[in-house]
Amino acid sequence: MVAISFVSTCASSVSLIPSTSAASTSCHSVIRRPVKCKIEADIGGDDRFPRRRVLQFSGAVIAADLIARSSLFVETANAADLIQRGQRSEFKAKIKDTLYTLLKGNPDLIPSILTLALNDAITYDKATKSGGPNGSIRLSSEISRPENKNLAAALDLLEQAKKEIDSYSKGGPISYADLIQLAAQSAVKSTFLASAIRKSGGNAEKGNILYTAYGSTGQWGLFDREFGRVDAEEPDPEGRVPQWEKSSVADMKNKFAAIGFGPRQLAVMSAFLGPDQLATEALLASDPEVLPWVQKYQRSRETVSQTDYEVDLITTLTKLNSLGQQINYEAYTYPARKVDITKLKL
């Protein structure tokens, strides 16, 4: 009778399970100990430990080790994801500060900023999945079209903003597609804040308190997440954007319907359709389908919180600003600076 000795050294599965005391600490160390398994088999036919059992046991130990390693990988990946989120959030906060300052100094361009964002986004075509808020409106052949004839000054202001933003960006230059939509967000917030100040008798401090307390700042979460659009290199096809000042309400409704919007969204975006919001609303109110929504939002704007108007406008703008876009959620991130913990003074 001849015995065959099978000796294997593998990572200990016992060490993969943290002890009760270790579980209460903030980090765990994984200790791997060699385990030697000696299995003897009688080749005469009386297997005490069949080969299949050997393979099953070896596979189980290896699988346990892989699970432990994958857990560590997931923890590392989650940490990297948190770092990238932090980087994007910090960058976006700086962008908003830059845009707020520029718009505060150029309030007359706010209506044009809104129309610029609308005209860049409403080129989206559902049938071909092309167009949308891709920054193509920055191209000379597109910004010079009749529907964009009064938007050059707004684009020039954003060019100025882009130079400043790119100067402090650690993760590459901001795309025009992102910049235009973030500028629209800042412009909308400026109108919300201006309304709060007006309701506070012109007192800016009280207006800021009112907007902070009753405004809809918490509704921007999904909009803020859509950050990482890629600029188009070619202009979008002509004929996709109406000349709003020359359009009938029926034309506007048809265009909004083409991107999945109805009378409600048309009414709430009245400020995007021309420099005089009240004049635009007077035109929209001539349509029986749009009239109830115009009245609803006008009443809402006279309340302290403007809840219906603000929430619906944010929701509509959020949908508009992502039409047809593939968002790169790692955009503007960069390698984190490594810290040599041996040089830290604790």
SSE string, helices as H and strands as E: EHEHHHHHHHHHHHH
Main sheet, how many strands, which sense, barrel? Answer: 2 strands, antiparallel
Low-confidence blocks of residues = 1-47
Outline:
globular
Which strand order does the major sheet show? 1-2
Task: Please bin the fraction of helical residues.
Answer: 40-55%
Give the CA-CA distance, first to last residue: 66 Å
Number of DSSP helices? 13
Overall pLDDT, averaged? 84
What can you tell me about this protein's structure?
The protein is mainly alpha-helical and 346 residues long. It has 13 helices and 2 strands, in the order βαβαααααααααααα. Helix 3 crosses helix 6 (176-199) and helix 6 (176-199) crosses helix 7 (204-214). It is globular and about 70 Å long.
Defining key terms:
5% strand, single chain, mainly alpha, two-stranded antiparallel ribbon
List the helices and strands and how they pair.
Blueprint: E1 3-11, H1 20-23, E2 34-42, H2 51-105, H3 110-121, H4 140-143, H5 152-168, H6 176-199, H7 204-214, H8 221-225, H9 249-258, H10 263-268, H11 277-284, H12 291-301, H13 307-320
Antiparallel strand pairs: 1-2
Helix pairs in contact: 2-5, 2-6, 3-6, 6-7, 12-13
